[in-house]
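Sequence in, structure out. Go.
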Amino acid sequence: MKAHQTIRALALASVAWSGCVALPALAQDSAPAADTGTDIVVTARRREESLLSVPIAVSAFSGETLERSGAIDITDISNVTPNTTLENSRGTNSTLTAFIRGVGQQDPVPGFEAGIGLYLDDVYLNRPQASVLDIYDVERIEVLRGPQGTLYGRNTIGGAIKYVTRSLPDQFSLKLRGTYGSYDQADGVLTVSTPISDLIRVGGSVARLSRGGFGDNLTLGIENYNKDVWAGRGTLEIGGNGQPVLIRISGDYTRDKSNARNGHRLIPGLISGAPVLDDVYDTRAGLNNPKQDVKAYGLAMNITAELSDHFTLRSISAWRKDTSFTPIDFDALPAVDVDVPAVYRNEQLSQEWQLLYESDRVKGLLGFYYLDAKAATSFDVLLGLTGATIGLPGLNGYTAGDVRTDTWSVFGDFTFDFTDQISLSVGGRYTNDKRSAYILKQNRISGTSPEFGGAAPIVIATATNFRGDRTFKEFTPRASLSYKPAPDQMVYASYSKGFKGGGFDPRGSGTSAPDSNGDGVRSYQEIYDFLSFDPEKVDSYEVGYKGSLFDRRLSLSVAGFYANYSDVQIPGSVGCTVGGVQSFCGITTNAAKAHIKGIEAEANALLARDFAGAGSSLRFVGALGYVDAQYKRFIGPAGNDVSDIRTFQNTPKWTVSGTLSGGVAMAGGSLDLSTTLSYRSLTHQFEVPIPALDQPGYALWDASIVWMSADDHYSLGLHGKNLTDKQYITSGYNYQSATGVSTLGREGVLTAFYGNPRQVFVTGTVKF
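Output:
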């Protein structure tokens, strides 16, 4: 049996923010820190330790504070986290686009590793589909900035986001949370758990999340930007509570049947003359086959065994699968012109082992990680208007891409406390990534492919029929040195190397590969070299300060960073020709080298206490991020350096937020009020500036009022999001030349997707 088959078999067998406060660490329990100034306990380095001892740039959001702020899904934390962008990918409701410090991945097709790792209860999610996780049954969400890989899971080049669900309590617990608000938002979450014996506990949650559309599809007569989600999670825990072994088995399921999210045209139809609509949430998109349908589910088993006073063994086994059918109407018009029926299918099996060690002066871990992942997509690009003009009815640029990942890693990280003041942490990771791909790209006629309900297509040209594989190996070290001039203060300096594996572009056209012989025939090696791309790497340097000041009334976290980013993968898609006929092609290169530098600061200040009677408080929490990301080399299509006219996508130079919150005793309980103002500067959607799509700087204003009973059994909240009803672009499609000529289709594609408008809703919670 081969090594990876053995590992696969073993894996299968073992299967403070008050109201809206972002704490500058992974808060286990933010409540004590709010007024008493006690140290926040964090787990950023896989062990419990004080925030002031962690030389890592990290933010965290507890489940309680997320609920008090009215957070809806994981993207809500983006506005209050420095140098972080989390948003729905263009054209979808449930696919996540994530960027941290200029590093990320916008395109969700297989073949590209994520620049930012997303974890659900320590399980790495290999693909971004179905990853816009809703906020329910959550203990905390953690955001780690900079390269990660020596402490857990998958290597990630830009950072990691960890969604941690609640552990089961030792006694019967029931919680019911309901929400109703504007656009007929109606959410309900029921959570129940109970002990079966002293050692066994079971629990689960069921969530129904729904909302009417922000706009309408004027062609299909359905809502646009609506929400229709069922979700559930179940957990079985065995052991713990003083026992040396804890086994946690969990499963989750999500079904999203929301309508497809269609965009707003920014230009009139070039052929039809269809005018630009007044409401940016309305659309004229005509594609609704297949109907959007997203299914995602998985199983995980986490075992923790305390072997001795010094050693702990952990095993994390997981299997996940998701399928996303989605119609994407690029031109957002009734005509069959750049209409894309698509499906994504993903499956993964992962196994992780960690051996943790802790003594008075040495703490650390050794780990092994394995991932076997399958990611496939197939889609049509229906070019009916184009085909009609050249006598090819039902012209279709069909693409199928299937990418397999087989990867394993060994990693370790140890901290040596030389004195109570000076500590050195060193770690490293060796990664072996194997990528295998099958890519089929054809021009067809007769319309939609059979998997989307069409008849048997007629192939008129094949651009790509390719199979290939490639292996990438890399060692990535990390080191940090910290010094505590006082017990509540720390300064640190760190270095880490990040690595993201290469792959194959599943949309690439073999006929676009260089023809060295000039005979019109490309060799396998020429196609292989054209479709594949190399890993990207980053050398990241960071210095920081963390401390509590003024009798612990102010906690402050400041970091400055510099990154040398090389072999940057630049994915893209263009209008091209296959067999002399227009089609859609992907082009991915390692065209760029960049330097990224910036600063981040987070502050939590208790401004007043007991100013209006017992229990009253006034607090300010702020976050600031600045990033200067510049390409130093960017090889354009003509082979020349165009770095001076290229920009970083989804990376605003400034991200700023401030929350003012207060609490006072009222009506046998407590009343918390908070208001948050956040700002993001100019954001580019692509590497090439596009004024019509690029979003100028804007501010969002949120506010919440929440009453909680003294026994914590009841709460009632009123929440407002985007209270000024600001319209802002989050993503878009562009197939227009600089002179306004369409490069794909005939009506022209310049389509924008917008963030949520003003929403006001009430929440009520009952728990026992």
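Check: The chain has one domain: 16-767. Residues 16-767 form a domain with the Maltoporin; Chain A fold (CATH 2.40.170.20).
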